[in-house]
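note to self: dont lose this again. the chain is below, predicted strucutre after it. 193 aa total, dont forget to put it in the shared folder this time
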Amino acid sequence: GLGCARRGVPRALSLRQMAKAKSVRQVKNMKHPMLSSDGFIVNQSCACDAPYGKYASAHNGCGWMAAYNVLHALRGQNDWQAVCDALHGGLHFGGRLGTGPRRLQRYLASFGLCAKMGFTSYGILKKSAQCKAGILLYFTPHGAHYVAFLPTQTAKTYRFFNAESGNENHLQTLPQFCKTQCQFPVILGIFML
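---
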């Protein structure tokens, strides 16, 4: 893919290669360049071979990737392709707009997670302080983008996934994140309480 090629990262495994694997265990053990060393998706630009609607996930897959990261953290999910496939069915306009926030919320709730939405700055800050994991939807200069985050042991600091391409240990407070990453204020958050 373009993002991987620019950084000298090997091309991602194709879906055909994943399908040819003889067992789920083999698929889980295949290292994909979009994954961090601990199994979180941190490099969306390396998902050029994972289709999501009419587009590659490198273009519009941030929603399913955020869901995968939350499920990886809270439910031990290691099959990113299963998450991509499950959310693929709810796409509109061939996936041009990516995954809708209500669809993400319902999908996460289907795993028994208490997924609540927050819309105002106050609601987002309050719920993020209480959550086990969360997802933010915000605007960048390139358009809307989802990121997943987990609280750390340091007060009010979170580990963000897929906000800075390839950054495995992106640690910031929520106000710092909004100041450095968001073009406009955060639109909404989905919080696992």
